[in-house]
Amino acid sequence: MAQDLPRRKFDALVIGAGGGGLQAALQLARADAHVAVVSKVFPTRSHTVAAQGGINAALANVLPDNWHWHMFDTVKGGDYLGDQDAIEYMCRTAPRLVVELEHAGVPFSRLDNGKIYQRPFGGQSQNFGGEQAARTCAAADRTGHAILHSLYQQNIRAKTHFFDEYFALDLIVDDDGYILGAVVLEIETGKPLIIEAKATLLATGGAGQIYRTNTNAHINTGDGMAMALRAGIPLQDMEFFQFHPTGIAGKGMLITEGARGEGGYLLNKDGERFMERYAPHAKDLASRDVVSRAIYTEVKEGRGCGPDGDHVMLKLDHLGPEVIQKRLPGIRATIQAFLHMDPVNEPIPIYPTAHYTMGGIPTNRHGQVVTPAGQTPEEVVPGLYAAGECACVSVHGANRLGGNSLLDIVVFGRAAGNHIIEQLQTNRYHRPMTGDSIERTMARLQRWDRKGDGISVGEMRNRLKKAMEDYCGVFRTEDLLAEGVQKIVELEGQMDSVRLKDHSRIFNTARIEALELENLMDIAVATMCSAHARRESRGAHSRVDYPERDDEHWLKHTLFFKEGRKLDYKPVRTKPLTVESFPPKARVY
Amino acid sequence: MSQTMRFSIYRYNPETDSKPYMQDYTIEVHAGMMLRDALLKIKAEDESFVFRHSCGEGVCGSDGLNINGTNGLACITPIAVLKQPVEVRPLPGLPVIRDLVVDMEQFYHQYRSIKPYLTVHDPEPEEEYRQSPEDRDKLDGLYECILCASCSTSCPSFWWNPDKFRGPAALLQAYRFIADSRDQSTAQRLDELEGPYRLFRCHSIMNCTNVCPKGLNPTKAIGEIKKIMLKHYV
Fold it and tell me: Is B128 an 8 Å CB contact of chain A?
């Protein structure tokens, strides 16, 4: 059957057209590599478009700064679980890459001297934990939109080949474990296609849709992560899921951390600026895990606002209409549309909401996917790369700092692109296709053609999201997680009874959602099992029964394998490239 | 407090339908719902119904639709303001693939053809290009476009000549680069908009501006291009 499928051949295949994928594609296209980008949506619909506040780089345009301070903040923000070689690389590269983006056309906001505008963000400091820094380069509060559109525009110029509205089904793996490309589905026709490539980059973004209330787009279903799992590759540190402190209460739309960076702050029902109690120094600009837990605690202890006491307020009105309109126009419009309120006049109800997948496909700092094999925990998977939210380099460790995700995608999208270019010099030919991975993919696809009664995709997705919210939220315990594992495994077992009613071919989004559900399920299981196993509190993983960080036993990365739901661990890379290591210290803000 | 609401939705599946038809749905709704929420409820009842959507907050531009005769984004259109039965159709003028999903290639083609990327001929400095806040302000109202196609598909000139007239969305982006103090291709950009169709098919009827869900003003941008052109060639 595999031999009957249509085939296309490229030097490199990039799956996902957000900032990571487009940055990599741009490097490749500019180097005259024959590159294809596969995206299930038109590129500018990718979720990078929704990033608001900005991108971190120690440009020192507003306050003194340097990359080494940025590195320290990132290591500390990640609660010492981040790999310090990758973090050094990212922070050193940041200023150069932001300048490159600016040259590519990104309409950054400007300072009076004509340089790029920078604002303070959470977890940023000068001089290794001193005064607040201003490191986040912003295009108003539409920085992701500005970057994504500029990168897409430059790819148009570079004549990158796009497969728009193609859904990636699986990686093609040969008998020797090489990745030879992917099987994709053309959404418009419902027809599968084989894309062969000498190198394949997964840049498919996060999996926020495993939670019910989230800031993420409908498309954020972790497709690349699940593709990796099915190819036998583990996912790393999946227990670390970031809850953004300021989602619109009850709805989940994101209100940028830039709102606090510009001077906004949080209030409980007594009108108290409660962050002063939780983080006396950084206050409302403590890192996200700290602020989210503080909000939960306020609400739990009866100091929440509103008739049900189920949220807190974000106050912005003291900033004045000029600042709000100039620096935060996007969130103002969102608040007006969804709350019929104007932040210029009154505080806004907010509550933490699922936001970012710190874990993902394990890679080294070149973007190469690595997995335990033979003697080493980090053996390169030949032909496969990953970058951005779907990857775990790991630069974010146990908690990502605001402004570091846009940076992550361009830094490692670019690193992966460059490494692929190098590899193409010595890998001039496509490897012959062996193995039965395509047959397995086609069988999985055809399962959805089964007719008859069963659970609907939507119903199953709701059950999954509810289980994740109930058992794997901000505060976790042994009992809760043990039950959660049972529940999610039970749901996974019911997947075989899920049926589609619509079996048509042309633009069948129900089928796409079924395939996405399979991906969400794999990721939910990985997240729950990884969380259950880690008996300490670190960053976003907060165990009420193990409230302390335990460096002696748990300063290590989790690896979850789909087969047998096996867990493994590997050491954190605590040695940077050129500077001294930052040893774990108590984390206070 | 829930109540019911009636919808009349354009349906067409080329595999099974010889021609398009309108299908009625009545669903439970609640205050504060957006049209996208209502369409998702319909999809939950009838999974064969197809429409594009993603971010749910008006930034990805996926769910441009014709709603009671006016183009807009489903995700930021409150159902409370809509007259019943709410008629939902695909964006006008583009080929329909299925239900509310249109083939947007003509629209994207026009976007690509205005060379929507910053072009600088001087050697690149090692720092950012300097741009004054005043010059940067000139990009406000231009760069925020989300390519939802609400504007171009509400424009009669684009309906009649989608292959020759660039359309409001592409022209807004043309002006976004002309207005950018960093860009060094203004002369070429203007040359490429010459002729009776590409730019000058715009008759300033302002449909585009009236429907833009981001509050942008393509008509004004087109007027600015015309003004600059006049100065450039006189």
Answer: yes
A147, closest residue in chain B (CA to CA)? B143
Rounded Cα distance between A23 and A25, Å, is 5
Q: What is the pLDDT of residue B1?
A: 52
A434-443 burial by CB neighbour count: b if 16+ within 10 A, else e?
Answer: ebebbeebbe
CATH classification at residue A444: 1.20.58.100
Q: Which two tokens stand for residue A223?
A: 């497709």
Within a domain: A42: no
Question: Is A410 domain-assigned?
Answer: no
Cα–Cα dist A123/A291, whole Å = 11
Residue A171 forms part of a structural domain = no
Is position A204 within any domain? Answer: no
Q: What is the DSSP string of A171-204?
A: EEE-TTS-EEEEEEEETTTTEEEEEEEEEEEE--
Q: What are phi and psi of A336, to 5 degrees?
A: -65, -40
CATH code: domain of residue A284? 3.90.700.10
Q: Which residues of chain B have pLDDT under 70?
A: 1-2
Q: Does residue A3 register a pLDDT over 80?
A: no
Q: Which residues of B touch A504 (CB under 8 A)?
A: 13, 15-16, 48
Question: Cα–Cα distance between A465 and B32 in angstroms, integer?
Answer: 22
Overall number of domains in chain A: 2
Query: Each residue of A9-45: pLDDT tens digit?
Result: 999 999 999 999 999 999 999 999 999 999 999 999 9
The question of whether A587 is a catalytic residue gets the answer no
Domain range for A251: 246-352
Paired tokens of A311 = 């949220």
Active-site residue, selected from the candidate residues A119, A212, A230, A288: A288
If contacts are CB pairs under 8 Å, which of residues 200-229 in chain B contact chain A?
none
Establish if B159 touches chain A: CB-CB under 8 angstroms: no
Residue A210 identity: I
Burial A263-279 (b: 16+ CB within 10 A, else e): bbbbbbbeeeebbeebb
Whether A344 and A450 map to the same domain: the answer is no
Between B55, B58, B127, which is nearest A337 by CB? B58
Tell me the Ramachandran region of residue A283: left when phi exceeds 0, alpha when psi lies from -120 to 50, beta otherwise. Answer: left
Q: Count H helices, E strands: chain A?
A: 16, 22
B115: left (phi over 0), alpha (psi -120 to 50) or beta: left
- For B58, the closest chain A residue by CA position comes to A334
CA distance, residue A154 to nearest chain B CA (Å): 6
What is the Cα–Cα distance from A46 to A24, expressed in whole angstroms? 15
Taking an 8 Å cut-off on Cβ atoms, the answer to whether B120 and A505 are in contact is no
Whether A346 and A442 map to the same domain: the answer is: no
Beta strands in A374-527 (DSSP E): 376-386, 391-392, 475-476
pLDDT confidence band for A435 (50 / 70 / 90): confident
**B55 CA: distance to closest CA in chain A (Å):** 4
Helices A143-158 and A84-103 pack at an angle, to 10 degrees, of 70
State the burial class of residue A118 (Cβ atoms within 10 Å of its Cβ: 0-12, 13-18, 19+): buried
Distance, CA of A297 to CA of A320 (rounded, Å): 30
> Of A352, A371, A394, which residue sits at a domain end?
A352
Q: What is the ipTM of this complex?
A: 0.98
CB contact under 8 A, A50 and B55: yes
End of a domain among A331, A352, A373? Answer: A352
Listed by number, the residues of chain B in 16-35 with a beta carbon closer than 8 Å to a beta carbon of chain A are 16, 32, 34
B160 touches chain A (CB under 8 A): no
Structure tokens at B154: 């509400």
Angle in degrees, 0-180, between the axes of helices B105-113 and B167-178, rounded to the nearest 10: 20
3-state SS, residue A419: helix
